[in-house]
Amino acid sequence: MESKVFEWIEQERQRQENTIELIASENFTSDNVMRAMGSCLTNKYSEGYPAYRHDGVGRKGRYYGGCQVVDRIEEYCCAKWQEVFQTDYHVNVQPHSGSQANLAAYQAVLKPGDTILAMDLNNGGHLSHGSAANFSGKIYHTVFYDVDENGFIDYDDIARKIRQYHPDLVLAGASAYSRIIDFARIREILDKCATGGRRPWFMVDMAHIAGLVAGGVHPSPFGLADIVTTTTHKTLRGPRGGLIFCRPELAGKVDGAVFPGTQGGPLQHVIAAKAVAAEEACTPAFRDYARRVVENCDAMCREFLKMGYHVVTGGTENHLFLLDLSRTHPRLTGAMVQEELDRHGITLNKNCVPGEKRSPMEASGVRIGTAAETTRGKTAEDFAAIARRIDAVIRELDKKVAEG
Ligand SMILES: Cc1ncc(COP(=O)(O)O)c(C=O)c1O
Questions:
Q1: Among residues 29, 115, 229, 231, which one is catalytic?
Q2: Average pLDDT of 213-230?
């Protein structure tokens, strides 16, 4: 019997094919990633870890029989991700998502009630970085560092807040920040602020920029951070999932925090797809892709600036940027623009902007990313043309709203 669901999957396939995808956290995976995801590996239970690891980290083994093949896949997946980031950090490839990776990373080094210093959701951080509505804000005490009046990370505020709050962990990483994050500078601040020979843990959540780090167009956090988490489905162009890297001495804590700490059986079909994505991310073609994502983003952002739009921080150095509509089109909310563009076959998302006065469901900005359409081969000229199409839709909508 053909399931009803396949009709909807076909509808979604057509929707994706016939729209311009500018959601900064989305991408189009390869057929091979899809093949691995949709395989018999989904049938396999494999709680635990392969008994022997290529990097010598001792692991107890699995709780189920029949894991001979999945052990090899998981081992290979770990080795490949170390190759992608040219690192000897220990890697755990089991987190089901970016949020799960963060949950386990915190659990590895923190106790409930410990203090995390991170970037606020309104300034570009992520829910799992300490939002009151999220587990991270309920289990831990969170304080936030600010951005300056132009939207840039205020590194001096990081130092100030470390002295004021003595956090146990400082987190760098964002969901909506268009500039290079200076990991070396943050590490230097942490070293300087260490009290009694003890500095806070330094964690980087590179979920958004991981593909750019892999492609050599964003500085790497490896060698600086104690723990690095990421998703595999954004600029890395892999399956939906998470990874945790850590200094080798934290391997036992991180592994224990993933399983049995916060998860049960790993998704071996996803781990296989992560391995395929890692193979792809090791290629010269991927480096070229990462470079084009950034070039295309810069070209599109410049086109908006030329048309008089207000871009948070005045530009971009990565795969995304934010338009602050409150400065140019105060009648419009991010939600209104998102919905209208949806009707015109352009997909993006509403986003809070620094100093946001509206609720996150309305928001005053929109976030625009170039990772997905660069995968489809769009050029800088194509992105500039899309910017002009978006402008035409926004101007028309603004006129309609003004006329009531
Ligand atoms: C910086 C950052 N960390 C974590 C996540 C969470 O990832 P997931 O949606 O896989 O839980 C996101 C998702 O957007 C993110 O942007």
A1: 231
A2: 98
